[in-house]
Amino acid sequence: MEEATIIRLPKIVEPQSNLTFVEQDSHIPFKIKRVYWIYDVPAGQILDGYAFKEQQELIVALSGRVDVVINNSKSEQHIHLNSSCYALYLPNGYWRHMENFSANSIVLVLSSSLFNKDDYICEFEEFLKFVTS
Questions:
Q1: Mean predicted confidence (pLDDT) in 114-131
Q2: Does residue 1 have a pLDDT over 90?
Q3: Domains of the chain from N-terminus onward
Q4: How many CB atoms lie within 10 A of CB 26?
């Protein structure tokens, strides 16, 4: 199984602004098929957990902060995202949920797959069976 990884994204500092970018093949190990963002989450809210059978993701806190709690069935990690220069790469086979959103946070997710409800694992016990089979 691939490991979840924090990726440092390039940051260009200009006198009037900063620019950060992500490039397929340079920064992430998958082709981008879908992009979505999470916003208007009340401060402190916990979003339900899930895992993917195949999909990989890159998660970036564009604004504000969020904690991504990940579990590979052997250990659990709390990843604090609070800068748009850092992204969490999540391969398939990780359970995750998001918590501790700051007010007005925006979380960007780049996905390796189009939406497919059959790829989602929504029950933790089902996830444990999946990763140990």
A1: 97
A2: no
A3: 5-132 (2.60.120.10)
A4: 9
